[in-house]
Every structure is written in C-alpha cells, then in structure tokens.
Amino acid sequence: MSSLRLVSSVAFKRHLKLSPLSWRAYATPATFKPQEKDPQLGDYPDLPWISNQELPARGWWDQQMRRNFGDPIQEYDEVLSMWGPDAPPVPPHKALFQLSLAISAFVGFGFLCKYMLVPERPTVPREYPYSGLVRELGGLEENKAREETEEIDE
After folding, report:
1. Which DSSP category does 30 fall into?
2. pTM given for the model
3. Residues 53, 82 contacting (CB under 8 angstroms)
C-alpha cells in the first residue's frame, strides 16, 4: 500500500472519528475448508456427485444401471442411480421463467376474451316511465320478496 494511500485513509478515518474496530468494514475473504470425510466410510473412495442418468447410454457392462462390473458404488447410490429422482433436462431458473411466461400468456388470453371479444348488447334495455312503474305496481314495500318462514304442514 502506498504511503499516500495510507495517509489519506488514516486522515479519512480520523475525519469520521471511527473507532479502530469499525475501520475494516469490508468482508474478509472466505477460506476454503474441505469437507471432512465421513469416518464411517473408512478408506472407501470419495466418488463425484454425478447422476447415472447423465452418463452416456452405451458402453457399460450393466446397460440398465450404466455401471461396469466391479465399479465402486456411490455413497448416495439410491439418489444418483437410474431409479433415483430424474435429473432435470431444463435448469430450474429457465423452467420457472417458461412457466411464468405460459401462465401470463394464458391470463392475457383470458383478459382478451373477456374485455375485447365480448360483443355489445344487441338490444337497448327496456325503460319504464315513473321510476320504473313503482307507483303503478303498488310501491316498493308491496314488491319486496316474501320472507321465507319455516311452516310445518301437519
């Protein structure tokens, strides 16, 4: 670090009056710590995490499981074998984008059908004089629906 840079950084820190503990605000570099080997495995080889579904289909002693005779089996063979969960052919972020695109297209088509393709009413609604014949039909109180009561016929 050049002396000019050091002097300017010290002057800047004094100007802000920061405590020495807060001078170093940037993140410390992460040190790589290799994962400890499972002690139950002993001297068993540490095999790569590759699904058998991603291996080529031909050239194996066991065509179905894509394995040669005498090959060591992966520790998590039930997950990485041919019978494990399918390896996705499309990356998840791309699949989510495609799904959201399809859903938005479906919703957009629905709004198009609802608001743009619905024809206008072919007729004009009927209009009655005198506030819709309220007085001629006996008023609002006479035209209310009957309240249902529970009457038991015996």
Report:
1. P
2. 0.40
3. yes
